[in-house]
Amino acid sequence: MKYFKNRQRIRKALIILSFVLLPVTFAYISCPIIIEAASKGIVAGGLVVFILLFVSSLFLGRLWCGWLCPAGGLQEIYFDINNRRTNIMRLNWFKYFIFLTIIFIPLVSAIHSAGGLTNIEFFYNTYHGISIAKQGAYIIFFVQITFITIFALLAGKRGFCHYFCPIAVIMIIGRKIRNLISWPALHLSTDASRCTDCRNCSKCCPMGLDVNAMVRQGRMENDECILCGCCVDACQKHAIRYSMTGLSS
Predict the structure, then answer these.
(1) CA distance 247 to 148
(2) Do the bridges between strand 187-190 and strand 119-121 make them parallel or antiparallel, or are there none, so unpaired?
(3) Beta strands 240-243 and 119-121: pairing type?
(4) Largest Cα–Cα distance in the chain?
(5) pLDDT per position as a tens digit, 151-177
(6) Beta-strand (E) ranges in the chain?
(7) How many percent of the chain have pLDDT more than 70?
(8) What does the DSSP assignment read for 95-142?
(9) Contact 170/95 with Cβ under 8 angstroms?
(10) pLDDT of 247 above 70
(11) What is the pTM of this model?
C-alpha cells in the first residue's frame, strides 16, 4: 500500500508543478494563440502540442488530464475549498460546444483565410521561447486562470474539465477512435468479485465518477475518466487495476 500512496503523491506533485509552470508553458495550450498563428499561416507550438495530445489519447486515454494538465493541478488545489462532486450529466455537453466555437471552427476559418499552413514556429508569441513576457500575453493567461477558478469553485470537483475544457474533447475523440478500432491501450480493468462496496474508489475519484457502480457493472471505460489511478490505489482488495492488454471494459 505504501507504493500506491507514493504513486498518488507523485501524481499530485507532478500535476501541481505543471500548474506552477503554467506562466512558462501556457502559450502551448492557449487556443487564442494557436488561432492567431493559424490566421497567419503558422503552425504554432501549441497546435503541435494539441496534435501530440490527440495522438497520445489513442494509446493512453486521458492520462495527460490526470497526471500533467496544469488546469487539473489548479482545480485539485481547490479541492480544499469545494470537494463536492459535479453533476456530471448537467451541462456536460457544453465542452463540446466550446470545442467547436473556440478551437475547431476558428482554426479551420483561420487556416482557410491564410491560404493554408506554410510555416512552423514552435515558439510563436513567446519571449525567448518560454514565457508570457510578450506584451498582452499575460491578459490571456489571467483570463484562463479566472475561468478555471470559477468552474472549480462553483461547479465542484474538476468542474472546468467536465463543462468547459476543449482539450478534454480532443482527447475524448481520440479515445473513442481507439475504442472503435480496439487496439491495446492503457485502461482500467476490474474484478468485480473482489469488490466489498467500501466505495473508497468513488470517494477519492477527482472527477467525481461513481467508480463503485462502474466496478459492479464491469464497465470501467468512461469518457470522463482521466486514468489518474486514485481508484486503483484506494482499493485495498485490488478490484481495480491498470492494464495495457486486451480490450477495456
Answers:
(1) 34
(2) unpaired
(3) unpaired
(4) 60
(5) 889 988 999 999 999 999 999 999 999
(6) 42-44, 119-121, 187-190, 240-243
(7) 92
(8) HHHHHIIIIIHHHHHHHHHHTS--EEETTTT-BTTTBS-STTHHHHHH
(9) no
(10) no
(11) 0.91
Matching residue, cell 475524448:
172
What letter does residue 101 receive in the DSSP assignment? I
Separation of alpha carbons 16 and 14, rounded Å: 6
Cell numbers for 98, please give them: 466550446
Grid cell 493512453 is found at: 60
Segment 70-118, tens digit of pLDDT: 999 999 999 999 988 887 667 888 999 999 999 999 999 999 999 999 9
Residue carrying C-alpha cell 470537494: 83
Q: The C-alpha cell of 223 is what?
A: 469518457
Q: What is the mean pLDDT of residues 189-208?
A: 96
Query: In the beta sheet, which residues pair with residue 119?
Result: 42
Q: Closest by alpha carbon to 75, among 206, 208, 230, 224?
A: 206
Query: Is the sign of the CA dihedral 214, 52, 98, 115 positive or negative?
Result: negative
Task: List beta partners, residue 242.
Answer: 188
Q: What share of the chain is helix, strand, coil (3-state, %, to 5)?
A: 60, 5, 35
pLDDT tens string 31-83: 988 999 999 999 999 999 999 999 999 999 999 999 999 999 999 999 999 98
